[in-house]
Specification:
Length: 99
């Protein structure tokens, strides 16, 4: 097992699986891979939580502001800090028009 901490290629693959899991059902093998990796990799666990959060926000944002980068999924590629998440949250509470 090459399950060493900091396996960047493995993490990339897992990131792909995580985002795919939001679009369609993964195969059994992919799900097993995902679960095993998430169990030992904090980074990917965090990423998968953030993606679930962003997907939820994007669904909400899609109702209020279809032109928002959130709605188009652009922001999914970015690694979100807790600060960024708070910004998104308060932006949504304030609504798209800030002026
Ligand atoms: Zn990982």
């Amino acid at each position: 097992m090459a399950g060493h901490h900091g396996d960047r290629d493995g993490c990339k693959e897992i990131a792909r699986l995580v985002s795919e899991s939001h679009d369609h059902k993964l195969s059994l093998w992919d799900r097993v891979q995902l679960r095993l990796h998430l169990a030992m990799c904090l980074m990917c666990r965090r990423f998968s939580k953030q993606l679930a959060f962003v997907r939820g926000v994007a669904a909400v944002a899609g109702h209020t502001d279809p032109d928002s980068p959130l709605a188009s999924g652009t922001i999914v590629d970015a690694t979100l800090s807790p600060e960024a998440k708070n910004r998104i949250r308060s932006a949504l509470q304030r609504g798209p028009s800030r002026s």
